[in-house]
Specification:
Elements: H1 3-14, H2 24-43, H3 50-60, H4 67-84, H5 93-139, H6 146-154, E1 158-162, E2 168-171, H7 173-179, H8 191-195, H9 197-212, E3 217-225, E4 231-242, E5 248-257, H10 259-273, H11 283-292, E6 297-304, H12 307-314, H13 316-334, E7 340-343, E8 348-354, H14 359-372, E9 377-379, E10 382-384, E11 388-395, H15 402-418
Antiparallel strand pairs: 1-2, 1-5, 3-4, 4-5, 6-8, 6-11, 7-8, 9-10
């Protein structure tokens, strides 16, 4: 597979997501350019952050539905990996796959950022237009002046007017749909009903500043609960329309529904901080938690014994099932003590126990982790025995560096692995 075929596959994947302004030929050309940059990042010859520019290029081409991300990620993680490394048994396959996952995460993050910039750009443009029209209308004392009405009703973003006491004067159709209420029911309602209790204190303080002339504008992001119980995440900018003496006559709010963007951002955060195979936290989230943990803490590092044999004899599909089963067993064993289990490598798992009281407690937890792997697993009707080597470090004081603690636990694990029959040496995978 070459870049040309890759671009065609990507274009096919995105077909129907939007009605783009580009022709199919132009789309394939655009995607071919972005695919070249992404392939370089997956190969390791370019930084993974080039994915930000690739995502921004899609947003600029009107691919603004989050579905574009979900359809692009398989192209990066599957098609690009197969193009670079056709054989899963190749020595560098795991590295290529891991880089592809990192590139996909950066692509998704870049898409979210580009989408936010585009939405806020439209919000700024609309706010400038509606304020200009409102100021003209105010100069004539006619809020219904034709130019203002045209902008008010024709805007694709939500627009509302609020009097100086904080009550709604009017909202356009887009704002009413965003709030899940009929437009006719909005006049007279308090702006507090729209902003929600979490933001109302901050909002009223900013409103007071605008009314006093200390500021002309404020912006916030709020979650609005609609009457049907669904939640809309709204990015709201409010500005004051003043008379010739500078006194605020009324306020204008321009809102953008960022619900999908926020949901996408939440999913991307989860994906960037969790292992895609097991669902466990990954090394990024683990090291963040470890860096913020308050001593004393316990850390257990497990390396599965003979896992390569599973992949070699039964294949990666069986190996993946074993890893998922291991993850579930380890989680269940430390859940009562609030332990955090993370997968930090192919067959490497690590456990953080915060508020660990003593070395004795950590030894007990280590035994529980090994015991969790003692019973054979049933994979595709086959009993698969799995064991692990474990290293454990109890830290009463915060280490100078996180690396210092990790080096200690890594050393302890490999010492146990090397010492046949030493404590922590589990049974090896049993393969025919």
């Amino acid at each position: 597979m070459g870049l040309r075929e890759l671009a065609v596959r990507w274009a096919d994947a995105l077909d129907g997501v939007v009605a783009p302004t580009l022709t199919r030929t132009q789309i394939e050309g655009l995607l071919g350019e972005q695919a070249e940059a992404l392939v370089a990042a997956v190969r390791g010859t370019a930084d993974v952050t080039v994915a930000h520019a690739a995502a921004a290029a899609l947003v600029a081409a009107n691919y603004r539905d989050p579905v574009a991300v979900s359809r692009s990620i398989p192209v990066i993680c599957q098609d690009m990996v197969r193009m670079i490394c056709p054989a899963r048994t190749a020595p560098d396959y795991e590295q290529i796959r891991d880089r592809a996952i990192a590139v996909a995460a950066e692509f998704a993050a870049g898409f979210t950022g580009a989408l936010r910039s585009a939405a806020l750009g439209e919000q700024e443009t609309t706010l400038a237009a509606v304020l200009s029209a409102a100021q003209d209308a105010e100069a004539r004392r006619q809020l219904s002046e034709a130019r203002f009405e045209a902008v008010f009703e024709g805007a694709s973003v939500g627009i509302g007017t609020v009097d100086v006491t904080g009550n709604v004067l009017d909202v356009n159709t887009a704002m009413a749909e965003m709030l899940g209420r009929p437009a006719a029911s909005m006049p007279g309602r308090s702006v507090a009903e729209l902003l929600g209790p979490r933001n109302i204190g901050h909002a009223y303080a900013e409103l007071e500043r605008m009314l006093s002339g200390a500021s002309n504008r404020f912006r916030l992001e709020t979650d609005h609960v609609r009457p049907d119980g669904t939640v809309a995440s709204i990015d709201l900018s409010m500005s004051a329309v003043r008379d010739s003496s500078g006194r605020a006559r009324f306020l204008i709010g321009v809102a953008v529904d960022v619900t999908e963007r926020k949901q996408l951002s939440d999913r991307l955060w989860h994906d960037a901080n969790h292992d895609s195979l097991t669902g466990l936290p990954n090394r990024v989230l683990f090291f963040d938690r470890l860096a913020r943990a308050t001593p004393p803490v316990g850390v257990c590092y497990l390396d599965l014994d003979g896992f390569k044999e599973i992949n070699d004899v039964w294949g990666h599909t069986v190996g993946d099932r074993v890893l998922r089963d291991v993850a579930q067993r380890l989680q269940a064993s430390v859940e009562p003590v609030g332990g955090l289990v993370a997968r930090i490598g192919g067959d490497e798992f690590i456990v953080l126990v915060e508020k660990c009281s003593s070395r004795k407690e950590l030894d007990t937890i280590s035994d529980l982790l090994l015991a969790a792997l003692a019973a054979p697993m049933q994979v595709a009707g086959r009993p698969v025995g799995v064991g692990a080597s474990i290293g454990a470090v109890f830290a009463e004081d915060r280490p100078t560096e996180v690396d210092e603690l990790m080096h200690a636990v890594d050393t302890a694990m490999y010492r146990n692995k090397a010492a046949a029959g030493a404590r922590g040496r589990g049974q090896r995978f049993q393969v025919p």
